[in-house]
Specification:
The chain has 218 residues and is of the alpha/beta class. 51% of the residues lie in helices and 12% in strands. The protein is globular. Residues 138-144 have low confidence and may be disordered.
Length: 218
Amino acid sequence: MRILITDGQALVRDGLRMLLERRGHEVVGEASDGSEAKKLARRDRPDVVLLSVCGALPAALDATHCIANHLPETAVIVVTRRAQEEVLCEAFRCGARGYLTKDLDGDEFCDLVERTGKGELALPPGMSGQLVAAFARGTPRYRRAPGGLELTRREQQVLSAMSGGTTSNRQLARSLCLSENTVRFHVRNILGKLHLHNRAAAVAYAFENGLVQPADGE
């Protein structure tokens, strides 16, 4: 994968570069802030942008939104020192495809980054549920997609499973007794019908527009 690293500290960028290159990835550039990341992303068209949030949250979210909208093939992964629900939700609303914290083990960090190459979300275990719970609060029930487009029964099941915190193709396939290729097919159809770019956006849209019913207790 071709990766752009963004962090205000050169030492952190060096560490991430060594970690990623050891796994066989190509670091195509380094940026010190969101503004520089936008310029380099437009120039180099990386597969992934690792975008650290170090106090300058509005600038980081602006960069996430800009890159996600203008370069939909590029996955933006927001990286923070610690998990914060508000930042987690806003990052995905802006189009991020991952949210990682700097306390992760190096191999786990890389494993999660590599998920985006399969069209999955880069989220540590347990954080999917946190994201779902945050989006689920106070929302009603589903039937129809916008613009009169009807989701099939199977697409509803896949969307419901994603909204319950099951986000990887392997987990979705196992829970629904489908092949991973079939899961990918249904996810592509869901995103197309809802006019969305990624799974996190689908989960957010589903809850915020009443396309799924939150589980009891959420």
